[in-house]
């Protein structure tokens, strides 16, 4: 029994480390800590490997995007932080005009990713992989810009992703995304307390 558990842990060490760092990442996000971004960067680098091995190519590409957006978010949040490393960039709400742009961009990116997966990959879950990836791209940008509603999108993405990872038997990632779902509710509540009205 112990040998089987040890063998499983060793064979899934990258995914486990990514899951642990992912939990830290979401915790730092809720607290609006600048540590959100370096932690997210490391998590994403590990999950590039995990998703490549599982033939979740859109999710893998998303991790590459996360690496890039982590540098952007890190810089953006560094422009305003206090001595406790908490970002002072204000939490904002998305207006109607921006929602239209976000919706249009989400549909466009979903269509492009879906086309690529269907035509050029062996993905057995192209629709869900494209859906979670397109919404994750948008939600991460919203997180970097500190829009409150990023948490609502994350709740949806996390629930759908949990089902996808159950199908793929990525059990540490299933647990991670269940935790993400719960923490996204808390993220919304905490960020709403700091919401600054738009001028």
Instruction: State the separation between the terminal residues, measured CA to CA.
Output: 61 Å
How would you classify the helix and strand content by structural class?
A: mainly alpha
The figure for the number of domains is: 1
Number of strands: 0
Q: Mind telling me the C-alpha Rg?
A: 17 Å
Structure annotation, total helices: 8
pLDDT under 50 segments (min length 5)? none
Helix fraction by DSSP (H/I, runs of at least 4)? over 70%
Largest sheet: none
In percent terms, what proportion of residues is strand? Answer: under 5%
What would the average pLDDT be, to the nearest integer?
89
Order of helices and strands: HHHHHHHH
Give the overall silhouette.
globular
Description:
- The protein is mainly alpha-helical.
- The protein has one domain (2-193).
- The protein contains eight helices and no strands.
- The mean pLDDT is 89.
Brief sketch in words of this structure:
By secondary structure, the chain is mainly alpha-helical. The chain has helices at 2-11, 13-30, 36-53, 57-78, 96-120, 126-144, 150-167, 171-193. Helix 2 (13-30) packs antiparallel against helix 3 (36-53) and helix 5 runs antiparallel to helix 6.
